[in-house]
What we know:
- The chain is α+β, with helices and mostly antiparallel strands and about 675 residues long.
- Helix content is about 40%, strand content about 15%.
- The chain folds into four domains: about 5-80, no CATH class; about 90-160 and about 470-490, no CATH class; about 170-215 and about 235-425, 2-Layer Sandwich (Nucleotidyltransferase, domain 5), CATH 3.30.420.10; about 540-550 and about 560-669, no CATH class.
- A seven-stranded mixed β-sheet has the order 4-3-2-1-5-6-7, sandwiched between helices.
- The radius of gyration is 42 Å and the shape is elongated.
- The termini are far apart.
Amino acid sequence: xxxxAERRGKLDVKKRGALLKLIKTxxxxxxxxxxxxxxxxxxxxxxxxxxxxxxxxxxxQIPATTLYRRVKPGKNVIEASNKSLGRFxxxxxxxxxxxxxxxxxxxxxxxxGLSFKELRSLAYQYAIKNKIPNSFNHNTKLAGRDWVYxxxxxxxxxxxxxxxxxxxxRASAFNPTxxxxxxxxxxxxxxxxxxxxxxxxxxxxxxxxxxxNKPTKIFSLKGKKQFxxxxxxxxxxxxxxxxxxxxxxxxxxPLLIFPRVRRNPAFENGLPPESIVHCxxxxxxxxxxxxxVWFPHFLKYARPSEESPVLLILDGHATHTKNLNLIEKAxxxxxxxxxxxxxxxxxxQPLDVSFMYPLNTYYEQETRIWLRNSLGKVITLYKIGQLxxxxxxxxxxxxxxxxxxxxxxxxxxNPNIFPEDLFKPSETTNREEQHSEANRNAxxxxxxxxxxxxxxxxxxxxxxxxxxxxxxxxNHWTPQxxxxxxxxxxxxxxxxxxxxxxxMILTSTPNMEEIKLQIESKRPAKVMSTKRKISLESxxxxxxxxxxxxxxxxxDSENTISDDSDWEFLSxxxxxxxxxxxxxxxxxxxxxxxxxxTDEKYRTKKQFVAYITNSEENGCIIVSFLRQYKQTTNIFVxxxxxxxxxxxxEEIVGKVKINKxxxxxxxxx
Length: 669
């Protein structure tokens, strides 16, 4: 086949130069060259037996057999570059493993990542459905662990990691529609008022506890199952903190809300200068605290005016969006409030993006240092201000504030900051539009006839196209055929009628009127004073029996009550001292009386303890009746609903003396 000159390596200058250049390129970057081109396709047009030139292979230190095996005809470049050891070969080809890797990353982007066992099951099903020879375990129907480890070695961009929990509300709410609406409102405000960086603020609440949530990693013995770090308690006391900064890097001194009723001066120790301390039983932010305490504090440092208005960006918490007094104050002081979309603050709020994480990290470091230097002591509420002040001063930097607005692209304004892959979790809950009853009936009839009616805005009718899987088209099962991408079903009609939050300009007039209507519709009706029922159920039954026995008596006997039975009843109830009251005796507000009332319907009399709420008018006295406490004889309490009535002097037995007990109890002496 080859001539003597060719076998001995005696080639012309042109062919020999081309061969030297080719082998030099292979030597410099051998593996990269194998991926980018096919050596056989390049060597074949030269028409030279370059594989037989042993002298050149020895010159560039390339074994002739190795070079021949790598560029053997009919062999793929990727397969040729991957040298296998012995008779063992990979179960899947390069393209098949690449298909599996792309599916794994697609599922992870939708927040439904595959676990170690799920990947083994998917690989087994993928091999069985596509009739790929394998050595997997057919009893457990799982691929081997060794295959997974080798697969991860070949796929350098995939690793086994611990995910972070993401709520379903955040996954569905962070979508292009909500984000687009927010940036449209933000753009309209920028076009109207031209806010500079120093006039754009963001505020948010965070919690600081005496026991930090996440400790820092520490060194420990390898293989040890349990190891811990010292903390003040199992669960700490929570202190709410209101933080605010601007796009220019200026910070408003924070507000701390301690879970106490009375304010202690020790709470202020170590706090940043001009910080505010407030107390509430719950330790959480309240509407009145945000409106009456923090907002005037914000106005003091922001200094808005008609010539220089301020933009305040905050989340849709009820203390912000349902606070009508706050909205009126903001509008009167030239502060424009923009509400973020619901459940999107983890990506769109500057404080959450850049400031909260370093603040919590520095606070945990300060608590760890304090516990190490204060042996035998624990962190209490009186030490939180000192530790928080140190962490706040380390985290509150100019670069942190500027990066928060820059990474969310609020300032400088850029509505296209978020890539499309961040919106993939919301595709799971993308549902079709709800149809009315007429449209549903039309849809059902058209579906039965084999045609689907066009949607609004479509001029042409569409015929239903059945879903065709890839394995039906080309007899190849893809990972998506084996494990379809998650897709939520149609949304059910809500019965509760709960209003969903939305992004909006809170200080605009239409939104203010809408919030007023919502607040007024939820206000409870005024509680009207109810008439007191004198007779108890037992008294009613007893009186009914008496009526049956005396049904044959005359009218006079029916209208009279035995004095003996009446005073026997009174003697049982009036065991305490009573000061008799004459018609001329002056009674004042706050006196306690023993009254006797008659129920004409059941012909009974009963004594009550009453409290004078108003002085006498036209011979009548307005009193509020008390109730017995747990069937006791001399301890009374006021009912939840005031039981007020008018009485006359004839219904007063006398005045009684009392002792005030704890929890609003009254003891009759």
